[in-house]
């Protein structure tokens, strides 16, 4: 059993770096605070005798040797960068739970057959630099190191400059680092476990995600003198599409998701008919086929509305993350461990992308979810219960021990 | 007949003050450019022998004596402040057309029985300081001088400070200035005249206007892990109301108008379900009763949606301008003058508020509309044809002469 208090204390200590007045954390990828966070976690790793390796995209691996150094490591981790209004647990929990597993093995003098590694991946959040899940994405070959290096923040600083500046541009070629299996413990970031009163989510896979930008172009005109029948009101057309994004998700099974999160109206003045509306579309589902069907329905309505109204509608895909099933054995191992430890558990699906999605392309992978308060995440009020954090970490300890061989 | 070239040249000269690269004008109320514009117009007035009076809210009256100094003046005017991306004609046309009437009377050595006055009112646009139609509103007693003085721009500067700074805080008490009749020539700011191929709009009145702010409060949550049935998506509820604003206007006759011009989504992030949406509602119609019915329908749907969804919806009225019928004799005089001069004309209603709305509370009032290109206004590409500008000014000359007595 792991030490829940020690895990909690480490989480709270790391959360001090970038702490916000409302109890959250703002520690954007590759800023000074990210460096401080990285320095603290690696100092804890070194104190536990781990060997630290950094690759060229700044992913960090901290290794505890196994009896058989030829075996690829059993790895666990997540990320320590946060959203601008982020919480203490998103990502950080997965990294510090992995460290707590190592500390527990040390407490009991347990040596494993395969090495154990604690990993944290660069810029999972994508708040400061896009794409999201950058470090694990480069590691898995989803996009190139050069592409990631060139990404710029709002001030025009590149990932490469910032990695160099904070001293986390390593020698190792991303991906040239074998993994035997990968586990990631994470808060659910949704309300399902809490609603069901269940402690452990056995994650079977991650939903497929497609992101689009949609632009409806009308003609701005004065709200008073322009009769209704002579208007080209971009917002009136856009709102019908925004509703279809949700309606279509509801027609496509329990895992269908449709969200319009971002809207920009031009010129955004009280007495001017909107001349242009841009908005984001986020579609998700359990299979890529289902996501594609949602996208087709939204696009079909866009064509119909454009023909009816005469207003051009442009829909452009900006990102796509295929649905990912996790390894059957890893999933079963999580379920077995939860049962053995006496924790209530249920099958779960991850609606959000995680570094585990990319890891799953390279090695057998599993995820462990625990409840978070009101399902809220990406928010300073994000919260999780110490007993849930401890339970998830105990499951992680079990699956890593099983996999690495005691 | 007025001198169309002189009118055009004056419009173009005034438009140089605050000219924008795209051919428009940015001359915000009470800024340095507004002072330059005021100085130019009053210098033209003085050159024509007019006596200039400024009142405490900066309204400017330029008087040409009549044979009978005891008669209240026949006044014409508008405003010379512009939108941030304004055009050359909105407001400026009404002021310079009135000045052109004076110049034409001088050319022909015509003396009138009643005095003639050229007026321009402070801050009609309301872009820098709210409320809109500030100078004429204080003049008509719609709100107090103190209320107007206290209005602040985005940098925190008050109307009173800025009036004093540019030297246009006069002695006269606003409203203590008799008016015999008021006429305002203006571009239509809508597409109806151009669509109909008609030169002169005989304005019967101004639509009633109600402005509301609406806030729908949901709960922000991650777009991935949050199942559809557990969401409180503020945007999905808001978009239904936005559509009702338009649908209700369409159900209430030819003059019904409904516009959502401004939308703010919080936190406005691609993968976050909107937790709050604020938007503006602009309702207009030919009678206050019809506007109120539109408002009732929107509010009724808001209550139903709030009950269905559990999301609080708050609708707050921020402004109200009653519908205003213009004086029957003044309206008829405009129609007669257009007919006499051989211009095509049609009955029109003003969908936009104008200084004439407030003037109509104090004196018999009429308005003359001319077409503007594509009905576009509040835009740097605002444009009007010299022959239309000339025609409207000729109508203005006739009605002023008729009223003042030659
Ligand atoms: N975990 C997480 O927030 N990932 C970001 C990408 C997504 O929206 O799923
Ligand atoms: N003419 C004009 O734009 N007035 C502003 C108030 C309105 O929206 O009608």
TrEMBL record, chains A, B:
Judging by the UniProt lineage, the source's domain of life is: Bacteria
CDD domains in the cross-refs: M20_bAS
Task: Describe cofactor binding as the record notes it.
Answer: Binds 2 Zn(2+) ions per subunit.
Residue ranges constituting the Peptidase M20 dimerisation domain according to the UniProt record: 207-306
Q: Which organism is it from?
A: Ramlibacter montanisoli
Residues where Zn(2+) 2 binds: 90, 125, 378
Pfam families listed in its UniProt record: M20_dimer, Peptidase_M20
Q: Which UniProt keywords are given for this protein, alphabetically ordered?
A: Hydrolase, Metal-binding, Zinc
* Descriptive protein name: Zn-dependent hydrolase
Annotated signal sequence is none
**Binding-site positions, Zn(2+) 1:** 79, 90, 186
Give GO terms: molecular function aspect only. Answer: hydrolase activity, acting on carbon-nitrogen (but not peptide) bonds, in linear amidines; metal ion binding
Q: Which Gene3D superfamilies match?
A: 3.30.70.360, Zn peptidases (3.40.630.10)
Query: Which InterPro entries is this protein grouped with?
Result: Amidase_Cbmase, Bact_exopeptidase_dim_dom, Peptidase_M20, Peptidase_M20_dimer
What family classification does the UniProt entry report for this protein?
Answer: Belongs to the peptidase M20 family.
Q: Which cofactor does it need?
A: Zn(2+)
């Amino acid at each position: 059993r792991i030490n829940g208090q020690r895990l909690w204390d480490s989480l709270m200590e790391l959360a001090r770096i970038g702490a916000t007045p409302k109890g959250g954390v703002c520690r954007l990828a590759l800023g000074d605070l990210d460096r401080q966070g990285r320095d603290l976690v690696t100092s804890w790793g070194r104190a536990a005798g781990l060997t630290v390796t950094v690759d060229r995209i700044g992913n960090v691996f901290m290794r505890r040797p196994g009896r058989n150094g030829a075996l690829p490591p059993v790895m666990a981790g997540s990320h320590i960068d946060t959203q601008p209004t982020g919480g203490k647990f998103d990502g950080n929990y997965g990294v510090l739970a992995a460290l707590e597993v190592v500390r527990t093995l040390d407490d009991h003098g347990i040596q494993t057959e395969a090495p154990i590694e604690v990993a944290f991946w660069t810029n999972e959040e994508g708040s400061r630099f896009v794409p999201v899940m950058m470090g694990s994405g480069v590691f898995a070959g989803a996009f190139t190191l050069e592409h990631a290096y060139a990404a710029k923040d709002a001030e025009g600083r590149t990932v490469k400059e910032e990695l160099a500046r904070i001293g986390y541009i390593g020698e190792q070629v991303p991906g040239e680092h074998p993994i035997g299996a990968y586990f990631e413990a994470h808060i659910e970031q949704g309300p399902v476990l809490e609603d069901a009163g269940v402690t452990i989510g056995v994650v079977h896979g991650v939903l497929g995600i497609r992101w689009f930008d949609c632009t409806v172009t009308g003609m701005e005109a004065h709200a008073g003198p322009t009769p209704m029948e002579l208007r080209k009101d971009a917002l009136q057309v856009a709102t019908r599409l925004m509703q279809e994004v949700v309606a279509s998700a509801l027609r496509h099974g329990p895992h269908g998701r449709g969200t319009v999160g971002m809207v920009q109206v031009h010129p955004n003045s009280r007495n001017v008919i909107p001349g242009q509306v841009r908005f984001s579309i986020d579609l998700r589902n359990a299979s890529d086929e289902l996501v594609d069907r949602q996208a087709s329905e939204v696009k079909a309505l866009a064509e119909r509305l454009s023909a009816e109204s005469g207003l051009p509608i442009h829909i452009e895909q900006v990102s796509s993350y295929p649905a990912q099933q996790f390894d059957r054995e890893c999933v079963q191992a999580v379920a077995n461990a939860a049962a053995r430890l006496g924790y209530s558990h249920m099958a779960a699906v991850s609606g959000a992308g995680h570094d585990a999605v990319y890891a799953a392309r390279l090695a057998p992978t599993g995820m462990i979810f625990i409840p978070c308060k009101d399902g809220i995440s990406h928010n300073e009020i994000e919260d999780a219960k110490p007993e849930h954090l401890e339970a998830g970490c105990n499951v992680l300890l079990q699956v890593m021990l099983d996999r690495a061989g005691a």
